[in-house]
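Hi everyone,

Forwarding the result from last night's run.
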Amino acid sequence: MNTRISHWARFVPFLVIFALITSVTPASAAKQLGDIIQSRDLLSSVVEVHTLSVRSLVPEAVKKTGAVAVGMPYARSFGTGILFSKEGYVVTNAHVIVHESEPAGRWLVDNIRIVFQDGSKFPAKIIGYDIPTDIAVLRIIEDREFTSLTWGDSDKLREGNPVFAIGSPYGLDGTVTKGIISAIHRERGGPYDDFLQTDAAVNRGNSGGPLFDRTGDVIGINSRVQGRDGIAFAIPSNLAVKIIEKLIAKGRLQRAFLGIGIGILTLDMAESLGAQSLVSLSHEGVYVAEVLRNAPSGAIFKVGDIILSAEGQSIRNNSHFLKIVANSKNASIVATIWRNGKKVQVTATVGERNSPRAKVRKVDTTIFANSTLPQIVLLDLTPELRLLFRLGDDFMGVMVAYVDPRSQAAMNGVLKTDVITSVSLAPVASIVDIKAEVEAAHSQGREHVLLGVFKLATGRNRNIAIQLK
């Protein structure tokens, strides 16, 4: 009997482990995740960031001759944002609010709207942004308190830790996906990259949204996707918080720099410089490729120097060295270099430089001085316009020559070359008709009017409400 018991006793540990594994079924895990999302009300603080950009400045033809330029004048985009303070501060990706194109360069978007899960919408302004780390801070223009998310400690993350994301991929708001941390300290070609890699599904529209740990704390800001291979990258929360604080304080980042150009140290290059014994195993160090004129570090560094460590840290690669210098809070850094066959310790002065900036479009507001509708330039349909846009003589309406891209009307969908066919459901055939309907709305104490709009681009009609103030 005792022999039989001892025989089965050998299997007890395995049975316990099996019971523990099977007790956490996919269904129960999903339920736990759902409980976390609901109990911490996470969805209410994950927002959509809608933007509108004008593709060109006010056409000279509009100001001089009243002509209308043909073509789609605006570009719309969207991303996800993290509401991280009760004062209405939202963090998202810089690429959501900074558009890049050749040869135009970088331009800030003209109009930003924050959309909540319950459908409420608020305008927002840009507080600051940092293109190298892809972080932007916005603030909702609304005098009220908001529910916010909590930052977690990204330094505690390890490969294999479970995570989940919430965002608006392809405009599908409130989408939840889950996965694990696949890797940490990933670099993707940027000088300050330090990404978390995850296999949680992240797609277009998730940009700027949160990556949560299993407790519901934000440990990353989703930033990049690697094709459709189930690989995504997020900015660690600890890095993001430091940048956010600086952006709120100053609107931009200033990074320390030495004024030297560095290159990748290969084994062949190390051998040619007599330093193969230092880097043959660990591949540590970077070499000085150039010293810029008027470099803050002066003549401390020379071309061909190998920088082995800085601020007490061994240099892993180029990106690591740049981050050590950029994050320095001192007026100088101490580095160990290899020069002429021996190690030398040097102290180099650092300077400061601003992060790259985007251009801001300036709208000539004088063209709206006598506008019948706020921030909209209108034109009566002339025979020339009817011929240009193939509108019959019996088609009644008033053409939109230009809309201020910063206006509520533009964000709601009123665009250049639209034709306004009615105001407050009353048909209009001229600017005089629109003015009469606007005056009637004012006399009745209404703050909005409903426009009937014919979209030349699609050939369809829409009803759009705009504010009169």
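The chain has four domains: 2-39, 41-253, 255-354, 365-467.

Cheers,
N.
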